[in-house]
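Forwarding these from the shared drive since the link keeps breaking.
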Amino acid sequence: MGSVLVDQIGPAGQLLSDFDVRLSNRRKMDLLLQALPGAQEETYSGEQVVRFNDQLILKKQVTHLGIPWPAFKKRIQIPKKWLDVHRQALSDGLTPRFVGIYHYSGVTIFVDFDPSSYMQRKANNSAAHVATNDLFQAQTLGVFSRQDRNGNRLTSVRAAEFSDYLLGVARRLHPRIELFERFNSGLLSSEPVMALDAIKEMHEVQWPDRFQGEWPGFYLEFRFDRFVRQHNLQDRVSFQKAKKRGDFDFDLIFGQPGEADYYGDLKASNLSKSESPGNDAETILECVQTFGRFWYVLYEHETWHGKSQEHAPTIAWNEWRRSVGYQGRNPYNALSYASRFKAAVSYVQMSILEINEANFHLALGQFNQGQQPGGATRAPKVMILKRDIDNFLIYSERVR
């Protein structure tokens, strides 16, 4: 038994708090053999392994990372010997796998770590990390793959699907994630999007927020809404610009029109920031309790500010707005919004962050909104903490 209460996942994917139970080598071997009909135990290059067709499985137990790490952080230890076995297996025409075994109260999940990044390390006991959310996704979906923020690939698999996964017949990618892959191919780039170019593009179709100073987020909304409509993808996701009274006030509706499977929000954030403001905490919790999950789709951008160019882009923006008839509440000022105006951005990274019952309390930190102008306390909002992103990251992509 472990000595620290940590995250555990129950049969329905529920989050529990309990000690890690240490598995004997015999128990780990038996769990693998039970999940892989026809597999055999053998000794290969001095290591006990499981042989499944032409695949060679090296195993360790998934356990908590240890004090002082948060309860959601888990790992396996990769001995230096595994690197030698990996090289020998490849030379023999076999496929070596580094597999973590999570087992708790009847729940068994296998975590397949892509060995490629660990082969570059020379330390004697390299750690391969996995989060509570990876286990939750596997237990509720069957198979779940992602890349962590350090570039390591891992796939978490429910025991009943492990054989199909190794045989290559288990589906790994959610169809709604495929949709974002397609959208990203036309958006993510190291090339800057110039402010006036983006704003004029929105103006052509009278996009409601085309005159707002924080244009990168509104341009993201505009591009995504256009993409969904052009490709007739509204049966998978739709962008909700005008919210109806009584509906959840979120940008994204996943599911058939009028029949939401769950909701999400589209966010743009400066790449240099360590956190990004979220939504009303109680509403997010209500969404999670009603639909089981909530998605933040976060696009991060590199930013060039107008003030670094002696405010020339800001002046040009204000002049253009006046030329097309925009009238603000205050008298015209060519340097309106000058301290914050973004002359250009490049959308270089995106993440899909799933909030669910297994990570809600850890994945989000409260953002103190202070007081309303009249003195009343504002409802607490959530803050996406990028330092904990691996506990709710389900997909990511970045410009290479």
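-- next protein --
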Amino acid sequence: MANDVSFVVEAISILLCINRLYGKKFQLDIWAIIMIAADFILLQLINEGILSNGLSIIIYLLLIGYCILEFGFNKKELIINYIMNIMIISVLQMCSWMLLDTIHLTSQNSADAERNSLMVNCVTLLMIFLISMKERLHKMAVFMQQKLAIIRILLIIGTLLIGYLLIVQKLNGKLRPEHYIVIIISMCMLGIVTYLWQKTHNKVREQKMELLMHQLYDEDYNELITSIRRKQHDFGNHLNTIQGMSAVYDNYEELVENQSDYIVSLKEENKYSRLLSLGNPVIVGFLYSKFLQAEQRKIRVEYEFHAPNMKCQIPDHKLVEIIGNLIDNAMDAVEQNPVEKVIYVKIENRDEDILFCIHNECQHLTQADIERMFVKGVSSKGENRGLGLVNVKAVCEEYQCDLEVGNQKEEDKNYIQFTVHLKK
């Protein structure tokens, strides 16, 4: 009985794995039932001695037919997914056996062979289910289909090794100690492929995020450009207005006062034009959108930029995450200030790094208070908040950027200042 269940569980493991490699959910349809039944009947005939052990290889030929009938014929996709399926199943079965043997759940007694086989196949099925979540197997299969020489070499070697092991196991019914060396090599190869896939996957994800940032903030950037160009057309009119004031006001002091007021209003109207000096469209567009948000919340932003063509090692989408969280925190901190709602932002280009500073008025904080700000879930804004600074710290650690937080005294006021050293 245990042997019968073991056959079925192994067949389901193979079908689940191949379906997930194709990016499909496993369904017990007519082809799956036929595949499981054929597998079961074939193995029963082998166990009863009607057929030889070597004929169990037929199961893998039946799997090719199942793939063609279920997913269609795509030679490249079929070969890659078929080989990966055999490698994954074989390696996971061996890992399951080693795991169960380590915790002493297997028995060396030949009478318990069926029970051992059932446990191994059950653990293998569980492992496949876990690693197939979030389409991991399909993404790896897609990566393997890329035209990379190292992938082809690893696939060929892996196929030969696993094929050799399968033939030995089917003919002899067991593996000799030297065969474990082959298994270890196969596992290492699978690990290398997984690493290469993860590395490529991360790079693609970074590129997608960068593209998303451009799509999000290009509109704000273009809006700022359009606004500045529109105001440039009025530049001559403003000069004529300032010059003409001398004919309107007879009193010199009154003339100076009105000219000063007019110039201040022009500066206020064009206050965001200096954002363009950063030269990075994503960061310029993002800061412009943030400063407009501050205006809507009745918060004034004083900024000072000395970083032409701002470039650093941190990708734009991570830079947006750092700057955005720090600006949001500063705005939240000053929004309830009944007297003055101001935040100060500074970006400065230095020899080895780019300095990003933001500070706002705040009561004096102890070192313990500052450390609590970086504890997940701790926030003055209520429960389930306090993730912003935790994320900022995590990004800074990921890209080895120094983050400094401290009090700063200016006249009779205290400010809390966050400083990030962005590596070039």
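The chain has two domains: 2-207, 271-423. Residues 179-233 form the longest helix (55 residues).

- D.
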